[in-house]
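ok new one. same drill as before - structure tokens go in, u give me an amino acid for every spot. 285 of them this time. try not to just spam alanines like last time pls lmao
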């Protein structure tokens, strides 16, 4: 009985932390979830003030993925990376950075044509490719969900506004962002951007107009010798001693850099600030 009580208590605590993090996506918390970091809360703050992460550096003959170390040729469980369209990811010789070699999914719907007016593909949040096809002319009753004023057919994917979760319409959905209907959209950062993490670069976020959630980074901004650290949020409590890594530098909370970068051939001015350590946060003004 006591074991059951503590098991329920642990599950309850996990769900409370998850619920708190859902409302903190504007800070870029999903990246830290993806990296396997642990949130650190301060009294009076509903969102984390920093994250505790396993150092983003290479250890001899191992690779890091979401807080776990993998030996050379050891594979990451496909269920952890399937939503990102990767499979069979294994740690390969890390020379300077943790590195993975992966297969990339080639979903049949990407190359096959079908009548989209009569049929549609069904998806679940934890998979990259469609899990089925439904055709309206087959006479099957199609289940529908309503969320945020819109209706979705069974198997359709939708993203709640200002959130880093994605959901799939399925029987039993109650209009609430909860499992198993919804899942946090993780980024597989340590598979894709291992070099940037190793160099303590900063994630660059370019959310769509009207969206506040900072989900998977659009790119990374790395430190350069001519970067000048300036105060960007002077009202931030400097007594916290919180700081972010940016290349070889440690940048205090509320401080950062303003710099010009090239983003897919476009000149762009970005502001990188220490908001949620240990990584900086970059956004376009």
């Amino acid at each position: 009985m006591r074991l059951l009580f503590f098991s329920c208590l642990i599950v309850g605590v996990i769900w409370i932390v998850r619920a708190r993090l859902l409302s903190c996506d504007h800070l870029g918390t999903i990246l830290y979830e993806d990296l396997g970091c642990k949130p650190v809360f301060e009294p009076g703050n509903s969102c984390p003030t920093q994250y505790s992460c396993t150092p983003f550096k290479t250890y001899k003959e191992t690779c890091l993925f979401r807080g776990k170390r993998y030996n050379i040729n050891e594979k990451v469980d496909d269920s952890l990376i399937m939503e990102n369209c990767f499979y069979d990811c294994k740690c390969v010789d890390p020379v300077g950075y943790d590195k993975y070699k992966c297969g990339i999914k080639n979903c049949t719907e990407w190359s096959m044509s079908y009548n989209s007016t009569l049929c549609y593909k069904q998806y679940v949040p934890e998979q990259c490719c469609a899990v089925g096809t439904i055709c309206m002319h087959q006479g099957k009753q199609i289940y529908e969900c309503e969320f945020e004023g819109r209706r979705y057919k069974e198997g359709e994917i939708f993203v709640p506004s200002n959130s880093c979760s994605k959901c799939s319409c399925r029987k039993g959905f109650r209009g609430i962002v909860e499992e198993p209907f919804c899942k946090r959209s993780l980024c597989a950062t340590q598979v894709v951007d291992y070099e940037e993490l190793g160099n303590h670069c900063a994630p660059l976020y370019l959310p769509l107009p009207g969206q506040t959630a900072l989900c998977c980074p659009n790119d990374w901004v790395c430190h350069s010798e001519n970067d000048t650290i300036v105060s960007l949020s002077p009202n931030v409590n400097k007594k916290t001693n919180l700081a972010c890594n940016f290349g070889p530098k440690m940048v205090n909370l509320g401080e950062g850099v303003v710099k010009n970068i090239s983003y897919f051939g476009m000149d762009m001015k970005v502001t990188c600030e220490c908001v949620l350590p240990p990584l900086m946060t970059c956004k376009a003004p």
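Helices lie at 2-22, 29-34, 189-192, 194-198. and btw The two ends are 55 Å apart (CA to CA).
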